[in-house]
Amino acid sequence: MAILPIITAPDPRLKVRSEPVDQVDDDLRQFMDDLLATMYDAPGVGLSAIQVGVAKRVMVVDCSDDGAAAEPMYLVNPEIVETSDDLRIYEEGCLSLPEQYADVERPATIRVKYLDQHGAEQELQADGLLSTCIQHEMDHFEGILFVDHISALKRNMILRRLKKAKKLQATG
Ligand code: NI
Q1: How many angstroms separate the alpha carbon of residue 64 from the centre of ligand 1?
Q2: Is the dihedral of CA 144, 17, 55, 12 positive or negative?
Q3: Quick one: which H or E segment has residue 122?
Q4: What pLDDT, in 10s, does the model give residues 58-76?
Q5: Measured by CB atoms within 10 angstroms of the end CB, which terminus of the chain is less buried, N or C?
Q6: Any bridge partners for residue 122, and if so which?
Q7: CA distance 10 to 44
Q8: How many CA atoms lie within 13 A of 21 on its CB side?
């Protein structure tokens, strides 16, 4: 398994729309294992393929509790088929926006259809952190970041900080 470099904002690649996967094959499984290893290494609870520069509708998540057994999930071509009316605010972060956090409001519960790592159709009801996480990762498929859900003032503040951090990194 390989640890892949994670793209950080601002970067035009994070605005690319991801394409559906035609076939869940060994190459994709290999890639998803790398994606999962990259997520655990970061560490994070979710990672979309576009965050390592691959514009496919593929994500990995693991929202298991700290200290509990790992619960890795591979979601290919996920689609939300139902959302609850009640909303939930969660303080979100993103491996592509290192050390930046903001409250984001989203539907509390979702039903999602997807293909698993074997290409089998699955459907799942998610709430809590898993619901937030899947919605956040699905946004990446559309080129949307969590900061696109908050006020322009807060967003610009965060993007300015990230730009500055990148500049510092570039100058060593
Ligand atoms: Ni993210």
Answers
A1: 17
A2: negative
A3: strand 121-126
A4: 999 999 988 889 999 999 9
A5: C
A6: 114
A7: 19
A8: 29
Q: Any idea which architecture 12-171 has in CATH? A: Alpha-Beta Complex (3.90)
DSSP state of 56: B
Query: pTM value?
Result: 0.96
Ligand 1: centre distance to CA 21 (Å): 20
| Rounded alpha-carbon distances, angstroms, from residue 13 to 6, 88, 155 | 11, 29, 18
Domain extents in the chain: 12-171
Query: Which helix H or strand E contains 75, and what residues bound it?
Result: strand 73-83
**What is the Å distance from ligand 1's center to 119 Cα?**
24
Q: Mind listing the pLDDT tens digit for each residue in 76-135?
A: 999 999 999 999 999 999 999 999 999 999 999 999 999 999 999 999 999 999 999 999
